[in-house]
From TrEMBL:
May play a role in septum formation. It comes from the Bacteria. Residues 11-188 form the AAA domain. Belongs to the ParA family. This is Chromosome partitioning protein.
Amino acid sequence: GTRFPRPARTRVMTVANQKGGVGKTTTTVNIAAALAQSGLQVLVIDLDPQGNASTALGIDHHSEVRSVYDVLVEDVPVADVVAPCPTVPGLTCVPATIDLAGAEIELVSLVAREQRLARALATYLEQTPVDYVLIDCPPSLGLLTINAFVAASEVFIPIQCEYYALEGLSQLLKNIELVRKHLNPALHVSTILLTMYDGRTRLSSQVADEVRAHFPKEVLPTSIPRSVRVSEAPSFQETVMTYDPLSSGALAYLEAASHIAARGAAQASTQEESS
Ligand code: ADP
Ligand code: MG
């Protein structure tokens, strides 16, 4: 396949939207697979107790497996819990198990409760070359998502082309602003992806137009179509990128990933010019 440009330094992206079912997990695993298939080293951190990203990547996450819970609550190094994705070389995953559901409460009483993922990840990245880290968030704005916001510099928001697409977005942006102000000055919304786009409906194109009007720079030019192949892939413990690489969904995710990689390379060269 084609090679995507390598970013100058690791890009850490938190995939967030406190609405459920908008395509966070699907976007995380398929963008991650597309970047890895294009020659980059990619780490997915599953931060949702449901463990859907782990499932889709074919990573064991039954309750005995050491997971992101152990990293957050027990100070276990990321290197001890990371697992390779069996279907995509270059792609690794920190799985989530169901114990993570309790972490939201357990974290409250721990020291540096908002920084635990950031610190663990920084230590890991000192030893391991990774081009992209994608963090899949649960559908809430609790301490798990805050840990993801503190660990990342970029927020990646998938938006479903449906009624009320923008509802709740102002709450999300407000929380990002709070984290930026108090915990992580580098945090910003870099990327928005329209998901489950249905070209036959006026609603999809109206939502797409509205989102583009609000966020002209952030919205990727590619939208992800609604496609049965995309929704089938996880039941085979695969991403659509290997399950059906020529399907419309896989091709759209590959194109979206190429835009993300191109933006990363463009940002790096602007930074070099200005320094
Ligand atoms: P979230 O992580 O935001 O809760 P998911 O990624 O789990 O959302 O997606 C919600 C549901 O929609 C899942 O059943 C998924 O398979 C399905 N889905 C996501 N993207 C598409 C798509 N492009 N076409 C068809 N189904 C999709
Ligand atoms: Mg999810």
